[in-house]
Amino acid sequence: MPAEYRYIYTVYSGGASFLFELRALMGEEDFRAFLQEFYSSNLNSEVTTGQFLEAAFKRIGNDKAKDLFKKYFSQENIPEG
d(Cα 61, Cα 13) in Å, to the nearest integer? Predict the structure, then answer.
């Protein structure tokens, strides 16, 4: 795959794909509750990818999260938990 297509996939499709898989991993109800809680906790704040991943990681646990996070994010963004 040419570099420009990898960029387009990562930026425009990768995020949506990650959230789709995260929802499947967490289950619909827990995913919605997680997003509402994260939104409420960070209202009017600037958050990083790392902060979002850390919150999701804590919510779903180490074993389930590692493979999904590695698929979409560089090592530096994956929580250590």
Answer: 25
Place of tokens 């250590």: 80
DSSP 3-state of 52: helix
CA 53 to chain centre: 5
How long, in residues, is the chain? Answer: 81
Q: Max CA-CA distance within the chain?
A: 40
CA 61, chain centre distance (Å): 13
Distances (CA, A) of 52 to 3, 4, 8, 25, 59: 27, 27, 22, 16, 11
Global pTM exceeds 0.90? no
pLDDT averaged per 10 residues, the chain (length 81): 72 85 95 97 93 90 81 64 55
